[in-house]
Design goal:
The complex is a heterotrimer of chains A (255), B (269) and C (275). Chain A is mainly α. Chain A has one domain (39-244): MetI-like fold, CATH 1.10.3720.10. In chain A, 82% of the residues lie in helices and 0% in strands. Chain A has eleven helices and no strands. Chain A is globular, with a radius of gyration of 23 Å. With 269 residues, chain B is of the alpha/beta class. Chain B contains eight helices and ten strands. Chain B has a six-stranded mixed β-sheet, sandwiched between helices. By secondary structure, chain C is mainly alpha-helical. Chain C has 14 helices and no strands. Chain C has helices at 2-7, 9-30, 32-36, 38-41, 52-55, 58-71, 74-106, 108-123, 130-137, 141-165, 169-177, 182-218, 225-234, 238-266. In chain C, helix 7 (74-106) runs parallel beside helix 10, helix 7 crosses helix 13 (225-234) and helix 13 (225-234) packs antiparallel against helix 14 (238-266). Chain C is globular and about 85 Å long. Chain C starts with a helix and ends in a 9-residue tail after the last helix. Classes of the chains: A mainly alpha (255), B alpha/beta (269), C mainly alpha (275). Chains in contact: A-B, A-C. At the A-C interface, helix 1, helix 5, helix 6, helix 9 and helix 10 of A face helix 2, helix 8, helix 9, helix 12 and helix 13 of C.
């Protein structure tokens, strides 16, 4: 079963790459437009020996990490707080709902005015992209806590703090991880859009420049960098989730 | 002189305000009950008669509209370590192991970690789960989960054990096994027990006395002493005397059950 | 009085939060707080007056919105363009995503074949393809429609796969025992029970589509709400940028709410909807 899956998946991928290569080599489609796997590999090798490329990677990584970590530091506690205090959640609801309805990348023209075209405008858009899903996940985690567990704890005369720490907080963990995974995608999107829109360095910038100069191979290589980052981030989060949730049956199973 | 009851419910009344209509709905209508030290009392009644609600009032989770609950003559206002509940759905914390769940109540009471661990292990052994200390709830069968549930309540060493249909969700064979186990543990731990169930044979098999509740609003309809000597092998369920008691209790609640079924049909139509 | 408060607590507290926020904002732009705290903070207080060119203010935004909606009417043209892109993009994404997802859910081998591509595309921020799309089709309408398709097609397809996979196996057994053929099975069981998943996917796709509008337009487009915001931003017309943000928010909330309504109507037979 498993073998069949890998065989068919890998086979299709291989056929696709071969067809792509042939189309470009035979000139059936202008390679300037679609590049080809071998050309992308070459461009990748060339880029990796270029120090400018590594600067771009470092800039993009910094934007992602700073924004994403800040979003976790703000989003998780704020979500828990809003989940515990009904009144506070009512006051904040209009802001959270509005920000949730707007693609945060729409704020880029403003963020550029406020923070300039350096790294901080990108950190800000990454933060805004990630903080809302994390906050909402933590909030709904608290709100969906199981009443029967709370009743059980109360019957053992548990204090409010004890109930929060032993019942509500562990119950939010699966929700927070779902939020973190979703937010990671949004954060990566923020990096790309922010750099495409206005920046001086970064992998997104590299893609944009390559596009302007018809270097399709470098462009594809840049996109692949983002694909790889996306896969790595999700894999890391899956791992962490499994470590945190050994108690859940079948967590992290491939969906 | 007569001994003071361990647990006494005096004219417990409870009514809810229905949010939609704004009218009050009576759930308990003057429940009077006395349980002596070490006695095993079971409450049976049709579903929706307020048995579970009554148990929550005794535990102190719900405040009664009128009347009071006394434990050793002292009024109950909130949950306390002298009473512990064995919940209907095991309500085990899924992120804690068997041991972690059993020690939960001790943690809430602020018992030192080492002592809590030792006491919990002893209880895990008493309910027959040695070797499963570090399993998570989802790795246990329904019967095993209820054993943990029982151990969690017993570990705080309560004077009174409040059991809310703990075996209702088990299959028939496991249920009989657990009933036998409960009697064994009860004999070892010597607790006063208030046991809620909707199964007449379960109540008769376990209890010294069966209290029959009427349909909503709940109140005590009758109290029947179960004069079957202990220890009780599971075979007593097939004795003629057992069947006679079963029939008598069924007659008491039959009418309420049928009324309830009629009302349900009307409500759905 | 108290009863009224309790019944509308949510709305009242929400309104209080918004009004407080707006007053705070206006005060920063107009220097109210600088003036108010002058005695306390001395010359430092001047820092509490922020330049409207940076933060604009609620009244400026309201005036700009009024102008753009009623006086010049400039926003309608942009709205029209964005709406056209969005409609075309999401419709195309539905047309591709639903059949593909349903087929991949039903035919196991097909799902194995497309899995590597879907996984890779899902992990990639799809907007990274924008420079490539521009290379291929220019910065015109086609490019913006395609970026929306690229963003929106995945949640739709994944929703459709999940829809088929979670069809109650008992229902299929029942149908098979009445010797229903594949077509009948599909029409009578798979399709009806997949509607909620398709709608959930569509709801996600709407959000992605909004991102597509913004990204496609702020990056080298001449028309649409995003383009308007881009131009206003480069001219430091902060108020107009905010009007754009609000317009997108209103459209987004409206669309999602509309879909929720449809979901609720379609879902009447279902006891509780799985999140």
């Amino acid at each position: 079963m498993k073998l069949e899956r890998y065989l068919i998946g890998g086979g299709t991928l291989l056929v696709f790459l071969l067809a792509w290569e042939l189309c470009a080599d035979s000139g059936a489609i202008n390679p300037l437009l679609i590049s080809s796997p071998s050309r992308i590999a070459e461009a990748g090798a060339a880029a990796m020996s270029d120090p400018d490329f590594w600067t771009d990677v470092r800039v993009s990584a910094n934007e992602f990490i700073l924004g994403y970590v800040a979003a976790i530091i703000v989003g998780v506690p704020l979500g828990l707080l809003l989940g515990t205090s009904r009144r506070l959640s009512y006051i904040f609801a209009p802001f959270v709902d509005t920000l949730n309805a707007v693609p945060r990348v729409a704020l880029l023209p403003l963020l550029i005015i406020w923070f300039g075209i350096g790294i901080w405008s990108k950190v800000a858009v990454v933060f805004l992209g990630a903080v809302i899903p994390i906050l909402i996940a933590a909030l709904s985690g608290v709100n969906t806590n199981e009443a029967r567990f709370v009743a059980m704890a109360k019957s053992f005369s548990a204090s409010r703090t004890k109930i929060f720490l032993s019942i509500i907080l562990p119950g939010t963990v699966p929700y927070i991880f779902t939020g973190l995974k979703y937010a990671a995608g949004r954060a990566l999107l923020g990096v790309v859009v922010g750099e495409l829109y206005a920046s001086t360095a970064g992998v997104g910038r590299m893609i944009a420049d390559a596009g302007n100069m018809f270097q399709t191979d470098t462009l594809f290589f840049g996109v692949l960098i983002f694909t790889a980052s996306g896969l790595v981030v999700v894999a890391v989060l899956d791992r962490l989730e499994r470590r945190f949730e050994r108690w859940r049956p079948g967590v992290g199973a491939p969906t | 002189m007569t001994a003071r009851p361990k647990l006494e419910a005096q004219d417990i009344r409870l009514s809810y305000l229905q949010p939609r209509t704004g009218t009050a709905l009576a759930a308990l209508d003057g429940v009077n009950l006395q349980i002596m030290e070490g006695e095993f009392v079971a409450i049976v009644g049709p579903s929706g008669c307020g048995k579970t609600t009554f148990l929550s009032v005794v535990d102190g989770l719900i405040a009664a509209t009128a009347g009071r609950v006394l434990v050793d003559g002292e009024a109950v206002t909130r949950p306390g370590p002298d009473r512990a509940v064995v919940f209907q759905d095991a309500s085990l914390l899924p992120w804690r192991t068997v041991l972690g769940n059993v020690r939960y109540g001790l943690e809430c009471l602020g018992v030192a970690a080492r002592e809590a661990g030792a006491r919990a292990e002893k209880l895990v052994a008493l309910v027959g789960l040695s070797g499963f200390e570090h399993h998570y709830p989802h790795e246990l069968s329904g019967g095993m989960q209820q054993r943990v549930n029982l151990a969690r309540a017993l570990v705080v060493d309560p004077k009174i054990l409040l059991m809310d249909e703990p075996f209702a969700a088990l299959d028939a064979q496991t249920r009989e096994l657990m009933q036998e186990e409960l009697l064994r543990i009860w004999a070892a731990a010597k607790k006063t027990v208030l046991f809620i169930t909707h199964q007449i044979d379960e109540a008769l098999y376990l209890a010294d006395r069966v209290v029959v509740f009427s349909g909503r609003p709940g109140k005590v309809k009758d109290s029947i002493a179960v004069d079957i000597e202990r220890p009780r092998p599971i075979g007593v369920k097939r004795q003629a005397r057992f069947h006679a008691l079963e029939d008598r209790i069924w007659e008491l609640i039959e009418e309420d059950v049928k009324t309830k079924a009629r009302e349900d049909r009307h409500a759905r139509a | 009085m108290r009863r009224f408060y309790l019944q509308h607590e949510r709305a009242i507290l929400g309104a209080v939060g918004i009004i407080a926020f707006l007053i705070l904002w206006e005060g920063f732009a107009r220097g109210w707080w600088a003036e108010l705290l002058q005695p306390l903070l001395g010359p430092q207080a001047a820092r509490l007056q922020l330049r409207p060119i940076f933060i604009s203010s609620p009244t400026r935004i309201a005036r700009a919105a009024f102008d753009m909606i009623f006086v010049t009417g400039a926003i309608w043209k942009d709205f029209g363009w964005s709406g056209l892109e969005f409609t075309l993009g999401v419709a195309l994404a539905l047309a591709i995503g639903i059949p593909l997802g349903l087929a991949a859910g039903w035919y196991r081998r097909l799902s194995y074949a497309v899995e590597p591509f879907l996984t890779a595309l899902n992990a990639t921020p799809q907007v990274a393809f924008l420079p490539l799309l521009i290379l291929w089709v220019g910065t015109g309408l086609a490019c913006r429609v395609l970026i929306i398709v690229l963003l929106a097609v995945l949640p739709i397809a994944i929703g459709a796969v999940a829809a088929v996979r979670t069809v109650d196996a008992r229902l299929i057994r029942v149908a098979r025992s009445f010797s229903a053929n594949d077509a009948l099975l599909f029409r009578s069981i798979i399709l009806p029970s997949s509607v909620p998943f398709l709608l959930a996917g569509a709801r996600l796709a709407v959000g992605r589509g909004m991102i597509g509008i913004v990204v496609g337009e702020i990056y080298g487009s001449a028309a649409g709400i995003g383009a308007m915001m881009n131009q206003a931003g480069s001219r430091f017309e902060t108020d107009k940028v905010f009007v754009g943000v609000l317009a997108i928010a209103v459209a987004g909330v409206g669309l999602v709410e509309g879909l929720r309504r449809i979901e609720r109507r379609v879902e009447a037979w279902r006891p509780q909807v799985a999140a």
